[in-house]
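Quick board copy: two proteins, each given as sequence then tokens.
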Amino acid sequence: MALRINGQLFTDDDIYDEMEKLKAAAQSGPNPPNCCEQDDEYMGYARDTIIARALLRKEADRMDVTVPPDKVDESLEQLKEQHGGEEWFYMTFNTSKESEGEFKEQLADDLRVQAAMDQLVGDIHEPTDDEVEAYYHEHLDDFMAPQQVRARHILKDLDHGADREQAFNDLHEARKRALAGEDFATLSDELSDKSGEGGDLGYFGRGELVEEFEAVIFSMEPGEISPVFLTQFGYHVAKLEDRKAREPYPLDDIRDDIRKYMVDEQRNERSRAVVEELKSKATIEEIDEDGDDADAVAAGDVEETTT
């Protein structure tokens, strides 16, 4: 359904384009969307974003908010840097050098909207050290370091036409020697195709190494030596040296991160309140693309998607 916000029409194409922009921006984040599976969710985000932007743009006009051109140029360069340079920036935002002027116009509009929001939100309380510490202890489960293990391995690489049977047999023999009491680190330096530092991989958590390797290692107990197993890198024999249980990150290591999170949380809550207040005074209509069967609704009755 298209939208008409205080008389201004936003078509299905406008909403779809906004959804694609949001998905493109999310691709560089920690939880990128999975192709089309989250389209309904991102379509909801797009509709909410369009409504909020339209209402804030009107407020920016009322407040006579302006953004200097050099601020727009600075923000554009920051975006390019954040996205790995011009080439990746153009790919991410589906734009080009030739279309950069249009992008800057949209960026200037976004900066005006953000400046209006900042004024409407007002000053944000900076949490004290005591408040940060209290938040840390109240939300301790959110600040737990993942379980980690430390392992060594002996690897036989299968690249360049290596004899698979010979590689397997070599590692089977190495495993027998380790089980008989020979030092695993010494065996790794002697036999591994990736020799050095006794095959020590250090501490790592789930998701840091290939899935097949982790499946074996995380099933073992400290001191245990694995059977010979295969990954994309070749045949391995591994020894689990140590396992660290989940534990909280030290407060001093993440104090600044918690403070920033608390500030952002305050800003987001106030931003939502600002938008809800503007929506309560607006007329928002969900309409068919051709404009027929318009269904005007009070702003507060528009279905929301939690972001």
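And the next:
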Amino acid sequence: MNIFNNLIQQSAKIAPPQPQVLGIGGSPRKGGNSDVILQQILTGAANQQLPTENIHLRDVQYQGCLGCERCRKDKICTGLRDGMSFLYPTIIESQGVVLVSPTHNYNITAWMKAFIDRLYCFYNFTNDRPGNWSSRLAGQGRKAIIAAICEQENKKDMGFTLDAMRLPLEALGYEVVGELPVFKVFEKKKVKEHEEVMLQAEKMGAELGKALMQ
């Protein structure tokens, strides 16, 4: 349990982030289109001489938020001690983040939803009702890119996928500097054949890198 205690103590203190990019993949399918897009965006950021890290949520053992509210006092999630405990320090340290999810039933995947819900611990709340709130990650120049992939033909059929990533990130204090919706792609790695999408993904990553270095 000491390792979790150390992680909790480390994560409860929000230090200024570093100009590095954390990529979060929400697809359960290894080596699929979401993975390809995420890597392409990170390649663009890496070409700007920024450190990057790639994490696939399918490889992390974690749960969704329990709503225990212990984080209001502890300033980090202490109600659960799992794979997210290991991710919090990197999230805090990384000024840039990239979220990529395929569309599942008009929305992000369950893996991505659980990840976003576990970021609730970064909010401060007042004791009045209805309570005011603020984010401990805000005001630090944090920036993000979001991308969604589906086999359907338009944003209507993609549903809430982009909104479900953008709105929580903005509430946490991130500036979303790029959004990439990808349509009509389903077969594994088929997105590699869409040259325009691949170029756009790399360009977005490069623009994120440039924005973080300003």
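Board note added afterward: The chain has a mean pLDDT of 94.
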